[in-house]
Amino acid sequence: MRGRTLPCLFAALVAAAGCGAGPSGDDGPTRCPWRAERETIGDTLIVRTVSGSERGTGRLVEELRIGAVEGDDHENFGRIAALGVTPDGDILVYDEQAVALRRFDADGAYLGTIGREGSGPGEYRYVAGIAVLPDGRIAVHDFGNVRINLYEATGDFAGSWPARTTLAAVRPLPVDREGRLYLLDSRAVQGSEQGTGTREMILVRLGADGSPGDTLVVPYGDHRTPGLEVQTETASIGVLLPFAPARSWTVTAAGEVVATTGKRYAVDVHRADGTVLRIERAVRPVPVTPEERAAEEDRVTRSFRRHVPGWRWDGPAIPSTKPPVSWVHASRDGALWVRIAQPGAPIPEGERDRSARSFVREPVVFDLFRPDGRFIGQVSAPGGLQLQPFPVFDEDRAWAVVTDVAGVPYVARYRVEWDDPVS
Known about the structure:
The protein is built from one helix and 32 strands. The chain has 423 residues and is mainly β.
């Protein structure tokens, strides 16, 4: 195990007058060249952003929207559960309600539906993720039929691979640049007593030919997000504690597993050689507002009282501050998009749902990093952008589900427009 080295600055120091405070209150990404510290502890290299960034702050600007309230069937989305984008820019949209994988070109024109509902060749029953392979083929995780369906770039069925996993959480089907797929599963922790329910999250890696490969542990350590639980006559029902640090993971194009627990601003990139790159950034705590706390307490109470009338809060208290990071996802070209905590903001009058518990919401803001830990900048998302299903990202593009004030889902393509890029 390598020894600990003293922090060293590897970006040029700049005059303090040239820097400005970022949106999180830290010496952030605006008007300041990137400055960082580098530190090695054992097998972990820490790249800690102190101030500034490569490109400053920016925002996602919508340039295409697909969908309609009234129109043809293929334009009326029900529950969009997965997105994909081909090398040519075609957009794949899996509608869970219609059980249909629809394809649109880069201009939004409908090209047809890939496969159909069923259990025969090329059909699917419950899709738990889609991916576009480096050669352009489309992979569909058909959890209902316990397989991976493959389709040519044309949409023609190209065979299937077995995919035996126990988890059916709808999320991206990670693929690396070598064409290997990663299936999420769980297994009992070695050494735990039988029946304790102690399990760890794992990724089963399939080779480019579908052959079973090695198994990777999603590296959360011993972190468990606290929650609340109610016992009914037939089942135990639980929810995660609002604003508690929660786990998030992704897989990069290089096949590296990335994980964060949200307890502090630290995103760990686990490399193939066994070393870890830890990305850190100095940020100030973001408080949970009284309106946010009351809304979440009301949500949990209403949910539990549907099962146990008269239920009262009997678990851990909602934290006073938000986790600094809550979500991480790798782009197709290697960048990491990290959602960061933001102060709750009032919902504009014209966007308010009168049945809502609160007129306060947290804006969606991302920090972008290069695979080596360099801070690219901070990007704000427009209202209505959804993180479920997971968007598809490049460093300068994003494809995501967006909902209007009535909750109607659409698919949108965005470009990153930098407001004040650092030269």
